[in-house]
Amino acid sequence: MSSVAVPEELTLHQVRAITPHLIDLARSGDALALDLSGVCHIDTAGMQLLLAIRREAARACTPLALENPSPAVSELLSFYRLDRVLASYIVSEPA
């Protein structure tokens, strides 16, 4: 399993830098866990990246987990109603 701590900023500039690596991991077929607990800032580019990773993981039959979404991630997921779309991938530790 590949476990990746996503950077604090998941905005356009950062997304451009990390997309190729994360997409490669999603296409690998090995389980992928993205730790979203440290994300403080996320924008639409960050949401698009999460959806692209989900799409590529599904195509490659790669198990995917979006672990511990931070409040910033949860808020934007809810705003775009993607919390429903990505619900089966979201894993949160109990408080």
TrEMBL record:
This is STAS domain-containing protein. SUPFAM superfamilies: SpoIIaa-like. Residues 1-95 form the STAS domain. CDD domains: STAS_anti-anti-sigma_factors. Pfam families: STAS_2. InterPro entries: MlaB-like_STAS, MlaB_ABC_Transporter, STAS_dom, STAS_dom_sf.
